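Team,

Forwarding the record for the chain on the shared tracking sheet. I've put the sequence and predicted structure together so nobody has to dig through attachments.
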Amino acid sequence: MLADRSLDNLVRTRLKAWPQCPPGVTPRGFGRDSWMRGRPGDLSESYQPFLKLPGSNRMRTLPDGLWLNFGGNSGDPFVDILAIEACGSLPNLLDKRSRFAPSTQSMLAVCPVPWLLAPILSGEDTPRWRMTGVLRREPVVPLVIPVRDMRVLYGLKLRHYQGFASSQVPHPHEYFLPMHALTAENGHEEPALRALLSRASTTSNFLGPLSADPEEASREAGQDADQAEDFSQDHAMDATEMRPERTRPPLLRLVPNLAGR
């Protein structure tokens, strides 16, 4: 038990060195990105964001690491999350996987007022609530916001990691890495970890980067349409050139001869 606690403390210490935007994560490419690290933080445990199910006031999910990317507007807000869990045993892994398993229920992220009022970084004056883009005025109650997209990164001890990788298939929202990748100093700068997290970004599901400029996107769409039209015309000409000269079937040639008699 003490070993697990010391492992959790070490992981959280390392995660505090991670930037506000998860390393390797590609921006959405359109709209805005408002990534913030919710856990671990400098505030006390009770003032850090957490996850819960609607209507529940006791069962809370407190990941070792939690990054939130706010989106939408004040009338229709949402948040995309990246959660990180260090699992010291297989039963611990099964318990944490069950908390993030696909469900017909909507998960909620709860951001306490002290966390929203505090600045993102010490020494700055701008509070977090201004950076979310979904709050018009200073909050007096916690921000409870639905989770739109969820990605979870699990850290496993090496023997558990090897066994899981050889016999299990992760869910689409799950990603796994050996524990030493989380506990390594400056591990977030490792190219392999950054590449793994880049695949956890929603932009990795698209062929190319999305344009944030509507006019540029319109121009690109017009160019694509012109290229498609040129392609169709070229192939239509090729088909015409390749089409053999049409001749009337023998029966049709015979009918006029019969009518002329």
